[in-house]
Amino acid sequence: MSLFFTHEQVSLEKNVDTKVIIENEPEKIRGLYEIDRCVSWIKTNNFRRVCLQFPDHLLPDSVEVVFKLQEALDQPVYLMGDTAYESCCLDFIAAGHIEADALIHFGSICFSQSAKKLPYLNIYEKHDIDIKHLVKSIETFLAGKDKTEIYLLVDTPFIHVLDSIQEYVPKNSNVNVLRLDMDIDYSKTGFYIFIGNNSRKMENIIFSLDEQNLYQYDPSASSEIVNFKENPAILKRRYYLSEKIKDSQTFGIVMGTLAVDNYLKVLSRMKKLLKLNKKKFYVLSVGKISVAKLANFPEMDVFIVITCAMNEVYDSKEFYKPIVTPFDVEKAFNPESQSLKFTYDYNSFLKSVSDSCEIKPLDEPDVSLLTGRMRSNQSEDSEGTTAEENNEISLKSNGVLVENSKFGAGYLANRSWTGLEQNLGQTEIQLAKEGRRGIAQFYSNEIAGEENS
What we know:
Blueprint: H1 8-13, H2 26-32, H3 35-45, E1 50-53, H4 62-73, E2 78-80, H5 92-96, E3 102-106, E4 120-123, H6 131-142, E5 150-154, H7 162-168, E6 175-179, E7 191-195, H8 199-208, E8 213-217, E9 226-227, H9 232-247, E10 250-255, H10 263-276, E11 280-284, H11 291-294, E12 302-306, E13 323-324, H12 326-333, H13 346-354, E14 366-367, E15 374-375, H14 387-390, E16 393-395, E17 401-403, H15 408-414, E18 438-439, E19 442-443
Parallel strand pairs: 1-2, 1-3, 3-4, 5-6, 5-7, 7-8, 10-11, 10-12, 12-13
Antiparallel strand pairs: 8-9, 14-15, 16-17, 18-19
């Protein structure tokens, strides 16, 4: 039971999600959610079954959006009340339940490569921005940088004022205004200025840059353009997790998405790396990942979460066991990947590692930087050892085989539930009988005197 207790400092330092639930005035709904654009898109493509996907903080406006769309289209639209995984990912799983032929996604989106080809339309949030202050900040930043290319990366909540930004920015040939939902080539030399306040997006960008400079302008704070540095804490955690992965024996591969492209490919890659290094692993699918769900598998040493690059599960400190990315596993078990830069997006490194030469297991023993002990990548229940050497199975005198349950399979076998078996031909068939009437406080077939007992 000690696995389910954490230090009190964890609770004191825990960050509580305080994202404000947004409910706009009805007269603003049409403009904020671009109702006319949605109607035109649906009619132009003659879609009949259209699903609407909202993040939780925009759900109060969803009913009004549905009413306005149905009134304009004279046909039903379907509101998805809950997403299968993360709200930033297009939820093709839920849309497939009604055989939808189109999907409209509202709010922030992660732009992960889609695994499905269902037509979709993105409607972004619309945040305020002081254009004059932005232009003044850009002019100050451009002083002395006449020959350097400048790339303004406009985040999705500010794309609605993109024309104004392009109109008022200094008319320099070296200033390029780019939408963040475009396919941007970060290999170009120059300064990149991110207009927005989403730190995870900036982290994904800076890990994609090759010795480039990334700057940020935060419209919510109307601050000056400042240099965005790589967070050293993230890289330090990567080194720790790499050691933890090498020390561990039992892994849980958690499927956190079925919508991002190549999720099966990266799953196969993780299996291959773990098998080569003789590690035990189990593939888990629990829907939306939570602390309580993963706590049901205390036998796992590490959880490998396959999900989109914007998922905040990697930053959480509430889980009982370490949460790692596919990149961390690749870095730990593939010596050929040491030159790769860290990324949350498994599609960013998957192609380069899959095209490399055949990987080899880490046969050479080394010293763990966490425990200070010698370690080899031979699992305690390796197939290459005999039953007598690892004591996994012992033969009793009466011929009964006893399985060792200290590994994942033994734990799971002992935690199986019974009572839902069909037992065909073993249970007598009975007619339905009338059950109790009343409420739990007092049923009609109970003696009145028992009510006060």
